[in-house]
Every structure is written in C-alpha cells, then in structure tokens.
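Morning F.,

Quick status update on the modeling queue. The single chain you submitted on Monday has been processed. Sequence for confirmation:
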Amino acid sequence: QVQLVESGGGLVQPGGSLRLSCAASGSIFNLYSMGWYRQAPGNQRELVADITTGGTTNYGDSVQGRFTISMDNAKNTVNLQMNNLKPEDTAVYYCEAVIERLAKIQFWGQGTQVTVSP
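Structure tokens below.
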C-alpha cells in the first residue's frame, strides 16, 4: 500500500499564492509519477498537474502558466506552487501517486481544501 499525506491548503485572496505538498510512503517502489487533481462541488475530478520521476510535466489548461509542479525523487514528495489564484481554483485538491508494476496503479490522498475568496 501507498500512503499520501497532503499539506498546505487554506484560504487565500484572489491573486494570492499557495504551496501544496504531498509526501508518499509505504510500498512506493516503482513510482512512476505523482500529481494533483482537484474537484469542486458539482464537478468531476480534473487534472491540475502531474510529473513523472523522469521530470516530464503535464498541466491542465486552466492552470498553465500559473501553477508549477515539482518532485523530490529522493524524498518521494511532490509540490504544487500556485500563483495568481482565482476564485475558480476553489476546490478540494487531491494528491495522486502512480505505481507501475504489471500495470499502472493510482493511489490517492484524502484531499486538502483550497478556497480563493476576497
């Protein structure tokens, strides 16, 4: 099993910044990638950004240019720097880890709330 512990959510004003962190532990050999998804009330869970252990990144269209994802392979942590936050960024943010064994397996954190409001 893989455990993911998220931190860094909270309340911020529009235009502000937050940094989310997620640490993976447990059976994390063959880690393929880590990332962040988000889900707002009434919406489906959507990709925010992910990064492979090789450093390849992928961003959702709505956050491109504002958010930056990074990974510390030695510590099995992933960080998401969120700048110029907008009210529509308000959601629960979930950390994801993908382990590659015979197939890719996703693991999820419990989520952290990000609220962008005046």
